[in-house]
Amino acid sequence: MTLVSELGVPACTVEKPIATEVRDWRQLCALQEQTRTKFAVCHQFRWYPALVRCQEAVRSGRLGSVILLDLSCGMNVSGQGTHILNYAMSLNGDARVKSVYGTATGPGELEARHSGPETTAAYLVFENGVRGLWTTGYVSPKAGDPATDYQHVRVAAYCTQGRVNWEEFGRWEIVLPSRDRGGPV
Question: Using one digit for the tens of pLDDT, what is the confidence trace for 71-86?
């Protein structure tokens, strides 16, 4: 990002954790103060047509109010955790997380491409009162091809009158009290 700024690029989209340590975060804050480059964090599947349909169904009010978000992925928190949080937030009006009660285990992936603990599990509370259940790594329930960890990215919003479920590499569904609608992604 520093190189992009030094080259005078006016805008840049980045993905994944862009800071894995406090010192990285501090460097990004300093860069933000001095650069003219506008940076944005993007998770491209947020605008995938099936997920957009799920977002619209929740926003429409036809499903009632969101009560619970269920978000999980097969890779570790650095590999896909940012994605599931972003997608879940898109189903919850982009309300911020207020508190997290969780655990992280397993040092096996600290030197991996996406360094981080092997598994995480957490209970999230969002600013709007919605609760969330979070799991990453091999402890997550499987979706998509069970032989691959990267093909499991799943978010669901359970509402007072229905639910939506979206899997990045699989199926999606919108469940209303009167009918079901879904299909392959």
Answer: 999 888 888 888 999 9
CB-based burial label for 121 (10 Å; 0-12, 13-18, 19+) = middle
Question: Which helix or strand (DSSP H or E) is residue 30 part of?
Answer: helix 22-34
User: Does the reported pTM lie above 0.90?
Assistant: no
Q: Which two tokens stand for residue 86?
A: 């972003």
HEC string of 57-105 equals HHHHCCCCCEEEEEEEECCCHHHHHHHHHHHHHHCCCCCCEEEEEEEEE
Assigned token pair, 147: 């032989």
State the residue range of the domain holding 23.
2-41
Q: Strand 153-159 to strand 119-126: parallel, antiparallel, or no bridges (unpaired)? A: unpaired
Indicate whether 37 and 73 sit together in one domain. no
Q: Are residues 78 and 103 in the same domain?
A: yes
Same domain? 21 vs 91: no
Number of folded domains in the chain? 2
